[in-house]
Fold this sequence. Notes:
This protein has helices at 9-26, 31-34, 83-97, 112-116, and strands at 2-6, 42-49, 52-62, 66-74, 102-108, 121-129, 132-139. The chain has a single domain, classed as Aminopeptidase (3-Layer(aba) Sandwich). The longest helix is centred in the first third of the chain and has 18 residues, at 9-26. By secondary structure, it is an alpha+beta fold.
Amino acid sequence: MKVVVSQTEESIKIAQEIRKEVFVQEQGIPLHLDLDGLDLNSYHSLVFVDDKAVGVARLTLVENNRAVMARVAIVKTYRGKGIATKLVESLIIKAKQLEISGIEIHAHEYLREYYEKFGFGYIKHVETVGDHQLIEMYLA
């Protein structure tokens, strides 16, 4: 398993392909909600298994020296193998390297305990996307 964090056009293309497969085709989330225009100004963490990209997550820098982690997606056949953990850890490390003061996420409600293991704290319930209730969490 190899993890790469970058801002290249190639990484964006790969990230969008995985997100389309997971979010749009599998979860029924409209494509325009995924393609929010923030990919060019974000860091993309990609996990490769045998040179095949199987997972992605994004870190977008925002005002007040903060960042938003989003778009965590794992190809279905690779779930349950620790890939999401590698993605989240890589972006937390990148945020520390960039001296970011805090990371916000809007996670699926059922993943609350998972993100708490990384130190994220629950803030509040936020929007519903498709059939998915999201919650806001923050890591200082």
